[in-house]
Every structure is written in C-alpha cells, then in structure tokens.
C-alpha cells in the first residue's frame, strides 16, 4: 500500500490533472512601465492609466506612481482639483485640448490624489529624489491653473516649488523646464537676483525656449539692466511660438527701447503665467 501511494503521488507530479491551471509569469514593473510609455506615445491615455493602476492599485511603487503623475498632470481629459481624473484613448485625428472643451465633470472616473500619493511615498522613500521633482511640478501646475489646493496661498506654493526643485537639482534631476520653473518661483518671491542664473541655465539647456528669455528680460528690467533686458525681450519675440507671447515680448521690447532712448521710467512687464 505504501508503495502504491508513492507511485500515485509520483504520477500526479509528472502528469498534473487536466483541471490544474498552467503556471504563468506575472509582468514585471519594468515591462508594465515600458508598455505604459508606449501607450502614452500612441496617445492611448486611458489604456495607459488602466494598465498602471491595475498593476499598482494602492500606489505603493514609486516608479509607477511617478508615471501616473506624469499622465495625470499632462494628459488628463478632465480633472477634479487634481484628485480625480478622466482619460481618453485618442483617435488618429483627435486632439486632447479640443476634447477637453466638450467633456464635463462626469468624465472623471479615476481617483488619484496627486499630492497625497507623492507625499506618502516620500515618507517611505525619502532618498527617491524623483518624488521631490514630481511634487515641485505638481505645485507649479497648481499655481498656474489655480485648480486645487485652495488652502495654500501663492506664497506657499512658490515656497513649496522652490523647496522641492532645489532638492531635485542638488541630486542631478534638473532640466530646462525645472530651472525655468524655479526661476519663476524666485522671481515671484521678489528674489530677482536669484532668478537670473536659473533662467540662464534653462536657456543654456534649451536656447530656443522663448518663455525663459521673456522672464529673464523681466528680471533684468527689475535689476535696471535695461540693455540686457532689451536683448532678451527681442529674442523672446523672435522665438515665441504663440501669438500671445510674441505680442507680450514685442510690447516689452518697445517699452525698453523707449526707456533707453527717452527716460529711465516706464511701465513694467509682468511675469507671465504660461507653462
């Protein structure tokens, strides 16, 4: 009997029952992130969100949450105070900005409290400086759109932007966009001299970035360096990729020309709030 039992167990091991499911290998985080990136490049934003959220529904993986943050802040269809989002898979000829005007708040299906998710992860992974960068980008977007964090004043948002961008830069996570945004925060805090090298760094990393040239013109104007301000304003006008920015830059340039040629006083250009 003992021999027969052993033989039966051996047969089960070699020939599993027909009802037994075959073993499958779960997708790895790297595979999921790669597939989500491809979906985003294909403008399949809702599919990308579902993939990421299905892989990490409780937002415990920093890399996944960071990709969700990028998707939520930049490619949502609709948002509810940056705590809930709606997405759509775009068809070949569809444009996201056009669709946004058509959809109501009913299109918001997916909860994702950006600030809460990132802060919770930062408590667990304080040395993950990509989380610092993502928080800085979040606060910048909040200040620009004025669509969330109603309890935070603009001064508080500037301070938070500066805090998190500075940490990210200290750990090599800066690019033209982050240096520009930190410069914008310093300019808005009236720390004019500190804004100049930040805008200059953004321009060095992306010489054709018209908005950085425009804001640098404003900083130079405040510092009474009008010749340099005029040069930057003219460059901003030449490189501007929107009619609004071109108009503003040309207006600033004309005012600077007037001040240089006629008097030392005149209207000041206000820092623009374009991303």
From TrEMBL:
Signal peptide feature range: 1-19
UniProtKB keywords: Signal, TPR repeat
SUPFAM superfamilies: TPR-like (SSF48452)
Keyword Cytoplasm: no
Official protein name in the record: Tetratricopeptide repeat protein
InterPro entries: TPR-like_helical_dom_sf, TPR_rpt
Pfam families: TPR_8
Annotated TPR repeat ranges: 176-209
